[in-house]
Design a protein that fits this description.
about 400 residues; Rossmann fold; Dna Ligase, domain 1
Length: about 400
Amino acid sequence: MNFIFFSPNFPGYCTSFCFHLKSFGVNVLGIGDADYHTLNETLKQSLTEYIKIDRLDNYDEVLRATGYYTHKYGKIDRFESLNEHWLELEAQIRTDFNIFGTKLDFIANLKQKSKMETFFKKSGVASIPSITKLTRAKANKFIDKVGYPVVVKPNQGVGASLTYKITDTSELEQFLQTKPADVEFIMQPYIDGILQTYDGLVNRDGEIVFAASHEFPYSIMDAVNSGYHFSYYCLKEVSKEIEEAGRRIIRTYGIKERFFHLEFFRSKADGQIIALEVNMRPPGTWMTDAINYSYDMDIYRIWADMVVHHQVEEPPTGTYYTGFASRKNHLDYEHEHEEIMQRYPYEIVHHDSITDAQSRSRGNYAYQFRSTDYDEVKRIAAYIQAVKNKVEVFS
């Protein structure tokens, strides 16, 4: 199998994917913008060959590199980055070289939030109504119908960048006057709910072969707009309601041989599961590692086995709840790093700084920790994130 891994050095977990592909006998062919000597040793050993290009978003450079690999190694079987940012470029390459996977004619359904709503309706899963191509008159008419607060966000985008909760007419006017002209926004009613995910793998036959779920006590939008820190919990089992809704959506999309990361709200008012958005890539912010810690497994190896051999070993059941708790440099925390490590030497399984590109939403430094007791995981997160003179910033 000839597998082109685009940007194999970023995000960092790509090294693990490349390593396991190589271990199964795959020609892992890298294309990236980093100098070869800066790649970590494991990644170097995992790559059959590596081509450095000047800019990852320069399609001509990517096209030429793919053409070179095709000439040297024969037909390319896969082209992947496992990074949402490159979904459209990947689809274009797959279309131009007739490579297995999502093609250009379908990619908008995975990137535009307004199109996701159409698939949610087809699947029979409740979703959030929205409007696009915002004008003042259109926004006012929508708000007259659904009421404040509302949420505005880019129709096509990653994370919570340019995502705002609007609570009154003055905030709406401020948004309309300052929003970037080159970004298409959508508006939705604000849902007071707990964010939960459905994350896993779907094989070449469209069968879900593994799934896990994460819960977020507050949203990335809150972390970005408030300047506060961020946390989540990997659950040791998937709820029946999330499982059913997730399977319906995956079946409706007809996606094959991919990671998926679906986001839902569980309404605080009545417990209803409401679809938020679809991401056909691994969950970010260390969530793949959280799955490994919760299930005592290697999701990177399982993915590679699925791609190469079209099989997956029976995955283990969840044993632990794994928490993620970040801290931001501008906040004054009650407990120093050394105190945290001394208090939870066995529970903390990983800690590290977060890349600058993600620090605004995810934090500057983060800890992962696990326990068989869900309440204990929450207590550890609270200890890590305890702030001196705390002021509540969420509503």
